[in-house]
Amino acid sequence: MKKLYLSMIAALVTVVFCGWMATAQSPVKDPSKIVQANGTIVINTKTLCPDVEGFMGPTPVEIRIRKDTIIDIIALPNDESPSYFYDATAIFKKWIGLTPKKGLELKVDAVSGATFSSKALIENMRAGLKRALED
Q1: What is d(CA 85, CA 59) in angstroms, rounded to the nearest whole number?
Q2: Could you tell me the residue ranges of all domains in the chain?
Q3: 106: which of 16, 25, 55, 65 is 20 to 30 A away, CA to CA?
Q4: How is domain 33-133 classified at the architecture level of CATH?
């Protein structure tokens, strides 16, 4: 009985150790940059720069890039005042159609009346485009 008990403990330790090793060696996925099956790169600034804040808090964005061209920018859920934030998102059109490199070189002014929100969006865009150019 003692041998059976020791064998069961040894087997359990082996299973736990192998599971731990498999987990420790598997690559951690980076939620800030995902490449979709169609080749579109999706940059999410929610985890990339969580401290970038507008007037009422974080203002994360999702940047979509296909064939080295920015094709879409989506404002993610936030606590900004909707009417002011909508005005601030007008700056997104300045980046559409550019490469990430050209987008980083772009000088964008804050939107009057939505200064905090637009400055936060600009900072999110810069961080997201830098991330797009990595790897």
Answers
A1: 9
A2: 33-133
A3: 55
A4: Alpha-Beta Complex (3.90)
